[in-house]
Amino acid sequence: SVKIDVRAVWFDCSPETAKKRLEIRAVSVHDSDLTQFEVWLSNKSWFEPPDGENYPFIRINTDDESPEADEERKKKIAEFILS
Which residues in 1-83 belong to E strands, given as ranges? Predict the structure, then answer.
């Protein structure tokens, strides 16, 4: 058998952040088919996060959109991938 090292990065945010982003997206020029909060909630309800047994994962919260938070997320992801 072939061993494959799979690692998952799960980007997540609070419902409040999602709602704000979707409201902005609904009136912007971004191409997106997801603009309704109800659709986001529905999609989130059927999403099954990794169990961590078959492969490791890291959950990254994207609520804070500051450049400093982006840098911190990049560091966490790099540490996770390189560990």
Answer: 8-12, 57-61
Between CA 81 and CA 5 the distance in angstroms is 10
Q: How far is CA 1 from the centre of its chain?
A: 31
Cβ pair 25, 15 in contact under 8 A: no
Q: How far is CA 47 from CA 12, 43, 55, in A?
A: 11, 6, 17
Mean pLDDT to the nearest integer, 14-34: 75
Measured CA angle at 68 (ends 11, 56), to 5 deg: 30
Provide mean pLDDT across the span 45-53: 73
